[in-house]
Design brief:
Length: about 375
Amino acid sequence: MAILKKSFYNICYIAAIIFLLAFAVTTFQQMHEWAGWLLALFFFSLAFSFRSHPILKGFTFTVIILAVVSLAMYYPDYFKTIGDFKTTALVIPAMQVIMFGMGTELSLKDFADVLRMPKAVVIGIVCHYTIMPLIGFSVAKLFNFPDEVAAGIILVGCCPSGLASNVMCFLAKANLALSVTVTAVSTLVAPIFTPLLMKLLAGRLIEVNIVDMVWHITEIVIIPIVAGLIFHYLVRGKFKWLDKAMPYLSMVGIGIVLVVISADKSEALKQVGLLLLVATAIHNLGGFFLGYWSARLLKFPEKDSRTIALEVGMQNAGMAAGLAIKMGVALAGLAPAVFAVMMNLSGSILANWWHNRDPDVPRPEQRKNKMSQPL
């Protein structure tokens, strides 16, 4: 059985190389009707092959996301409508499913952790709601995007951290309890901070109705999370298959949001895609960098610093996309779509890099300081 598995994974690696070469050839020949399928097959083959590697295994979901987004970008018409039904109507229900899934993974103990480590939680949330909105505002100004696109970048920065940060913290050997708590608390305070920050930073770009935005966040995020919490206490554990299915249901929801938004905004993404990719990369990586070093300067241990970095840099882009739809600001959905793919890719790379570096092993400068101390 092990030999068969190894052979299958080797075949997947070979297939990935073949599909990538075929994609390069068809793209050069401008045969775009085939190029998209070949690019998607390359990513799918790569995702299967990664399952055989203990470190690369963590990239599987990210690579699958790249595969389905590739299809959406190359063949948007297949994903925009199903008959007369517009698929953008699926974004809000998909986000509610994701948030419900988040709620099922929470318990009152997670909120009690706020009392156990208040300083770390408060610093994590303060960093999150200052660093990311300000980087988003600065990037939007720097690149001089159209108002709605710029507002979308700021909107991503003003949203809470997402479920993906918890997965990355687990892979990065960070403080998972802190990660879950910061995600939960930052999400629950989003109806307060997200509308106020948007009004302050993006009020000149688009119309921001604070009351409407509070309700939209409550509808998309808070109600599903509360329902998930109730599910956790009334149903969880009674049906093992359902417990196992919930995380996958959330992953499907994330995929639906990304595919629908990418397809719906494919033409606009092709026009500003490269520049927007650079802008979101600066936004995302800036969040990781400033989050990590803010924690280090405040003398947090390595595990907590990794957690705050990932919590700050990884946003709930799906929520931002849903809010853009609810607000009726179509182009504001571009940045969340690009940011979601970017953060999953960069977050996976960072988490896997940290995975191979034990947080409990002193850093070189720490070892040097200890050696210089008198006996």
